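Backbone shape codes:
===
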Amino acid sequence: MEKDKNTHTSERKFWKGMFASYITIIILCFLLYVLAVAYGSFQLGKERFNLENSEKMEAVRNVLDTRLENANKMVSSINYSESVRALYKVLVENSELTSADYSTIQTDLRRIVSTLGNLNVDELLLFVNNQKRAFSPYGTLVLPESFTAMEYPKPYLYVDSISHIFSIDSNRVTMQKKALLYCDAFKYYGGTNRGVIVVNFSLDRFEKDIEKILGGPVPYEILYQGKKLFAVGEEESGGLEFSCVNLPDLKVRIFFPSFGFFTDNLSSAFLPIGIGFACSLVFLLLAFFFSQKYYRPIKEIKQLIPRGKERTSTVDEIDGMIEDLKGIIGVYTGYQETLTTISPYIEQGMLHGMMVKGSPISVNTSRKFLNLGKPYYYVCAINFSSQDEKDYDLFEEAAIKLDAVFSNEMLKIYYYRRDQQNYFLILNMDEDSDIDDLIAQIQKFLTEFVSSLCKVTIGVDECREDISEFKEACSCALSALENMVSQGKGEVYFYEKAMSNISATYYFIPNAEVYLAKFVKDGDDEAVNAYLDDILRQNEMHYELSASSVEALADELHYTCVKVVKDLSLLNANIQIEKAQQGMTVEEIFTYYKAVLKTLVEEVRKQKDELASNDISMKILDFVDENFSLSQLSLSFLMDKFGVSSKFISLLYRKYHSTTYLQYVTNKRILYSEELILAGNENFEEISSKVGYGSTLTFRRNFKLITGITPSEFREKHNLKH
């Protein structure tokens, strides 16, 4: 009875140990999974956090750029408006403004605010040099003294009140309240600076817009030309900074809070961790099931083994089973050592599985290496040049066939592809023999296999037998190949030790950029080509150019072309000139830079044509401003009168007025009709004809489209009777 009890206890102990090992493995795997999920969640959360901050920064940039763009359009509209023409004339002639002039300017400013302004603009003011009055859409303001020109560069930004900066005594809230002020020069059609235009943006609305974008009170500061305009919240170290598109000197620095995993991203890890925990429970149930399953054959094996001598309770049951098994079959010489290897499989509960399924083992090995089985070898560097991209695939096919065509008992050929145009060939030979004819045959074979138009250039190193010099042999072959840049492609060049001692001497004219810049400005591409041809001819006749000389000459040409671009004030500053590709011959290098300079000549010609078109542009703008009320004023009328295309006129009004030609004329006609309605002397039919409409119906439709109300409603709104 006691014996059966001990046996049962040892069996349960074995089962518990096996099940505990499964539980330990599952718990460790679950912990590793939790760590992986936490790390992945942290990385994704951080990326999402940074992406949200980037989107917020872009939204803040759009808020600023929208305000700056509106301000710039309002300044441009004032400088190109019809009323400014009269004001500019008065300033030039030092005469006095009439009351009608004041009314016209006020009406024009009110029109600009209603057309281009929005709820963000609180005030629009025009200060004129040497005048004691400032103009606004709501009337004129009296200054304590004549306005003098501001010393700051235009445009300029302030955060202050208009009354404080310009010393204006006004009770209007928009004058007294601190705001974001955009100041720019007042000059008619880009002429002389005659004053300052001030656009007043509400600072409160700006701060609310930014706070709404940032999702709360996040500290930030606005900088202009390196100086702080204003800041919100407590300043911190670091912060993300960006510039505005419309005014690069205006920068915003936002101090976003740092990313916190437990505060910003912990919830995203709950779901995958919960799924992992559920899977772990499933694995625990499976472990229990398989522990029972794999313990069953152990009991059967135990019943098949006769019990040996009595063992103490301290002896492990599995060890006892092994001892009994060894006692049964130990009489067979050589088997005892093999059978002891069953012990670890029994302890893992896997013996039954091995008996049923087996455990096949396979080992795969693979080696690939270059075997130079002959004592001597040559290294050749090959360059392949062709205008057809398809030839490069044919050339690799030709390189593969070299071994089959030329190899024999005394010669073995290997190839290595460096890139699309360059290869290494290794000629492995039994003896040190002359290979001039062999190289010529290889060059001929490669050329004929691909195309007669391609050029195959080969650089050949000297014969070697020490494999440790293989790297040096490759370098020497490349040095020999470099001769093609000075002596041409399609040849065979053999390495000579004296080649490394050749100095980099060449001919180049000092201050060449001065002459080339003059030729480009004059649009004389033939003079540019003749100048470069003379430099090339001098080098070919009087200098023995080496590869290093050609490289230095190419650098000289590149730097000269860069200086030419800087000397051409007509060209844009962002023009970049790429260096000639490595491996070009000296003739190809000069041909490349001729093409570069020809492109600059064409760009200069193009920009000169654009400057010439500005004169006709001003004539068209002036004519339309003076005759917008003509009923026959149309695109076709202007095309016939000035000899330009409709596309030219459309682009012209997009450039100067940021609108279409038709919209511009319609706005001026409707604005003029408002003045006639306010005067109250004419009916709608007379007014529509006077402002350029042949039909009263068309006039009424366009009036409502621009103002949002009909002419009759406009008259009633202002309590007018006709």
